[in-house]
Amino acid sequence: MQKPPQVKRSKLGRYLRLALLILLAFVALLSVLPYLVPVAGGPDVDPASLVNSYGRFLETENGLIYVEERGPENGTPLVLVHGFGGSTFSFRLNDAVFAAAGYRVLSLDLPGFGLSEKGTEPDYTHPAQAETLRAVMDLSGLDRAVFVCHSMGANVVLHFAHRYPERTMAIVTVAGAPVFETGGRIQSFFLRYPPIERAGKVALSRLVDSGRVRGLLESAVADPVTVDDTMVNGYYLRLTAGDWSSALVAMTVARPGNTLDFDIADVTVPMLLIAGAEDQWVPPSQSLNWASGLPNAQCEVMPEAGHLPMEERPSEFNRLVLDFLASVL
Length: 329
Hints:
Layout: H1 5-36, E1 55-60, E2 63-70, E3 77-81, H2 95-100, E4 104-108, H3 126-139, E5 145-150, H4 152-163, E6 168-174, H5 185-191, H6 194-207, H7 210-220, H8 229-239, H9 244-254, E7 271-276, H10 284-291, E8 297-302, H11 309-312, H12 314-328
Helix pairs in contact: 1-6, 3-4, 5-9, 6-9, 7-8
């Protein structure tokens, strides 16, 4: 005998209510659980101990920025811009050489990196990072500058050069990674939900340690012997200074805003694109490809170098940069 329709509907309603209750309980658990697990602290090192005698902090609209300056005050300004996960430490084998050659060398930690301000307050999109470059130049009294930029830093500098062509004298990119198509919109959307943002901070704080930093650096170079304890500690201590896990999550949220929304052919200043022949992160073919869209660029592929040629083969790197600048300035 067939059951009355109202009985079927009543049973279906009970199942739906039960499913809804289970879903709500699951969402509630996900909303609470990330807050029950503490964010792990970084290494027990006072960031002030990492400040060099020639370093200083500048207050900008995008937070407090750490800057190092070397060389004669009347020298041609040369600004060093690091890549993702890097800092002024990335150019420790280069800045003094450029200063000795007569350049006024200014290196900075972009917001979210090194000793500069971290957390959720700064704007981490690359156009905003370009404005940070402009602010640092203004505060340092630099009208124009040459830029040497590594990996992600190339995207920041291209934004700057597009916005301020009159302030850009020449550009040297090192394993440059311009962003022509930005993904990450789904991750950005979900990370705006506070419990998921918190879960990301907890995960990062427990995943990133000196061992993993060593592994990443070894994957970035042609010869792992290049990576010693000084290099590992230099990157690790600066990466994890301050509220770094919040900053890295915020950068993921900001990622869709990094796209170069202009034709790079508009950047007409002299450019040298340096690539490592054994770079597994940004293969040299990538540099050769995007260089074809630039009207005044040349490429140099360094043998026996990976993603960090300025640290792997500093003497050859410094010579390439200085020879190029001597030919175009």
